[in-house]
Amino acid sequence: MFRLLPILLFIALIFFGFNWLKRQPPGKKRRAILQALVAVSMALLIFLVITGRIHWLGAALAALIPLAKFGLGLVAQVLPFLKHRSSQSPSPAPAAMTPDEAAETLGLHQAFRDNNLNKEVVLKAHKSLMQKVHPDRGGNDYLAARVNQAKDILLKNL
User: Fold this and answer.
1) What is the CA 63 to chain-centroid distance, rounded?
2) Which Gene3D superfamilies does the record match to this protein (predicted)?
3) All residues at 6 or more sequence positions from 40 whose CB lies less than 8 Å from its CB, including other chains
4) pLDDT tens, 103-140?
5) Can you tell me the distance from the alpha carbon of 16 to that of 113, in angstroms, rounded to the nearest whole number?
6) Domain 99-156, what fold?
7) What number of other Cβ atoms are within 10 A of residue 33's Cβ?
8) Domain extents for the chain?
9) What is the DSSP-derived secondary structure letter of residue 64?
10) Could you give the CA distance from residue 123 to residue 57 in angstroms, rounded to a whole number?
11) d(CA 8, CA 142)
12) What is the mean pLDDT of residues 92-100?
């Protein structure tokens, strides 16, 4: 009978947990899941300490794991040289570009000299080049910005 009680309690907890999760607004479900996981982890650690399966110091150290993100953020504030620079950091704005450079960037230098540019030609060249240099396809932010800037300049000067 003693073993049946924790099993029934566990099943009831799962049932009420899922109902609680369903009632959460869509934007807050991820946070709710993380909170539930932390609560379950803490309850499991307390259970293991009470039953003597884990030393209380081990449980205390394990309980500090969720605080690691806060601690790492604090270390980054205290020691700014340890901050990790993300590859998604904003790239510097491209330097000013002349219409001649813009045409060369898009591969339309000869058409620009001959004054044979129109909106369709510029947009087609832009699309073709963006498919090659877009960050989602292995390019980088700087090249994509330069190509976009070249298109904007040429379209303004038509």
Assistant:
1) 26
2) DnaJ domain (1.10.287.110)
3) none
4) 999 999 888 888 888 999 999 999 999 998 888 888 88
5) 73
6) Helix Hairpins (1.10.287)
7) 13
8) 4-82, 99-156
9) T
10) 65
11) 59
12) 78
